Predict the 3D structure of the following.
Amino acid sequence: MTMVDVHPIAAPWGRFALYSFLIDAPELALVDTGVTASAAGLPVELEKIGRRIEDVRWILLTHGHIDHVGGAHALWEATGRRAEVVISGTDAGFLRSRRAHVEEALALRGEFVDAAALEAAKTAETLEAISGEMEPTVTVEDGDVLDLGGVSVRVVAVPGHTAGAVAYVIEDGRQVFIGDAAQCYGAASGFPGYENPAAYRSSLEKVRALDPQGLYLGHPYRRADGTPYPVALDAAGAREALEGSLAREAEIRAALDGYIRVETGSPYSPFAAVAERLGYTGDPTLEPSPFFTTMHGYCTQRQENHG
Ligand SMILES: [Zn+2]
């Protein structure tokens, strides 16, 4: 087994810590792209490690969220449009259309916040943070294999955080780029965000079964005690982060068990008691509100289970 060199590249955006990764394969690959502003800094970061953006041949997108696809168009241009831009068919709409991000936010959280304000803020954000709308050059699905000049990368569907989330797995070294599909105890917001709780759990179990020797996270997600994980984890760190993500999902599911929504004046309304049970004190109205997205996910799942 040979591990391929991987370089985490910080791609800051306001209060968010975002990460892209360079896979130092014969054909250079970038995993995720940050937003417009971070994409501008990325070529400089590559130079620091002796690599050039012009030589990047693959832009691998783990999922469609703004902070992962926003820089894609700018970086693709910087490669002279020579890089393949890869995303799952399911999440490709987020690369094609800024408006898709607005619609998604409204669908997942609009009923819990001031929807008009959310729409306006999200529309402005997509203009600033997404460098351009584009058609992916390659759409992938579970099981596809990409050849980075002799380094095989397998696509593993990890739905849950978004419907079309995928992990990219360097087959020989069992190095897994998981994007945001392992949320641990949440990132800056302190709450894990996923649209589909059951899919999120099975994706985590699927990745755990791969026994990753390296696991690369899209953000510095936190442990139960609030301390952040490094974004590049070894085998032991990978197990801990995956177990922690599963544990937190179980806690949230338990806190919602039998819960009946109650409208209150609380910013957590209609889930104030759930936030209290979980000891969650973050601001649930801060975008991209993982609290409301996840609550919405469980409510939707419950409705489906009950027909
Ligand atoms: Zn995400």
Remarks:
- The pocket of zinc ion is lined by residues 63, 65, 161, 180 (CB under 6 Å).
- The chain has a mean pLDDT of 96.
- Residues 174 and 210 are 7 Å apart (CA to CA).
- The first helix runs from residue 36 to 48.
